[in-house]
Please model this.
Amino acid sequence: MSNKRLVAVVDDDQRVLESLADLLESAGHSVLVFESAHALLQTGRLSDIHCLIADIGMPMVDGFELRRLARAARPELPVILITGRHEMADQQRHLEQGNDAFFHKPFDGREMLEAVANALRDQRGR
Model:
């Protein structure tokens, strides 16, 4: 059994999925990528995931709704939200909902890896 932590990335932009997968794998994480929240939820793998990274600007089920659904099933699951939008309302909504981290695209890879590491460390401590 692997000690690697499983990180799921959900974004409707294939380039973001590829670059985040490469970044996370280079840091030693196992990664699952999904082009929609629905695709992740259909797999039944939510219980296997140690950290979720989700784009808030997806059609149908956005990152905020995915966070709500994931946390209903797994309250301890760390959720990191990313966005290409720069609306203050999104940032306020993030603060109100208590997400682990919030990043605007493009984001610094080192900062993302640090946020993931912190989320995983905090989850192990729970």
